[in-house]
Write a structure and sequence with these properties.
The chain is an alpha+beta fold. The protein has six helices and 15 strands.
Amino acid sequence: MGFRRAPGLWELVFSNGSILHISFRRKARGVWWSQESRLGGDLEEDLSEFEPLSWDQLEELRMASWAQAWRTKERRRIERQRDKIQRAMDKDDPETFRQYGQRANALRHLVRRNQTTWTIPSYDGAHLDTVEDAQSTHVSELVDRLFHRAQRAERRRVQSVKRLEDLDQQLEAIERATAPSFWSEHDPKKEKLLPKGVQRIDLIDGSWFLLGRHAEANHRVTFKMARGRDLWFHLRDGAGSHVILPLNRGQNVSDELMTVGAALALHYSSLRGERAEVRVAYRRDLDPVPGHLGRVLVRQERTILVDPRSERTRQALDVFGLSLTSSN
């Protein structure tokens, strides 16, 4: 009988050829028997260098090692966030935008526009600074936009400073924090929080819808969260929420479920409670309109006429346990 060892893996070899593998590796943790060795080299037989431990002592050492590894991982995560915020602050300096605006205002006749950039000379003409701005059409508009960018950068800087202070407090609290359970990765995962303005509506059959409550959320739901095979619903010729029905590959959609999606799009629109048409399209047939959050170009679609007071609509909602009232 002998043993072989490597970081995270031990093998105990018995006289009958059986091998007991003991793995501490994160992705292959466990104990199992086999007839083949995963480790090379000669068998070790001398156990004198090892200190015998009771089960309680072993558990205490394991928990201490796990806690230290968790603290190291958390510390690196927070430090990466701090570095990312600090780099953004260094790049987004409000004083730089303010100086660009002052120089562009004073040297209007020397400011030149390219396709998507502007060049602003220094006061002594020794060098040129290039500013990205594809939306400004003349120097006066560029000056205004530069001062506005400086104001926005100042507001972002205030929030970034607060965030850095919060991360510093988290770093200080790590040493005092209690590490999660060693087996916590086997616990049910918490549901991820939805982005701001995005709402999820679950049906009793397991289906669910995503919808946006404002322009930015509409853009995120349609072009960030939806897949090409998902269905998109929206009020025809009117403002309203983008409603997404996630679908599995090859999944067929019943008429009742289509009616529910159209009813949701009508309910969360400017024509709530009225009879109107709703557009239906696959996500792959949609394109965003540049510069206009929430607007889409539809290459192929169909329409559904929805009457929220009709018997058909009420029955479809009842099938999936959904009720649309003025309070939701």
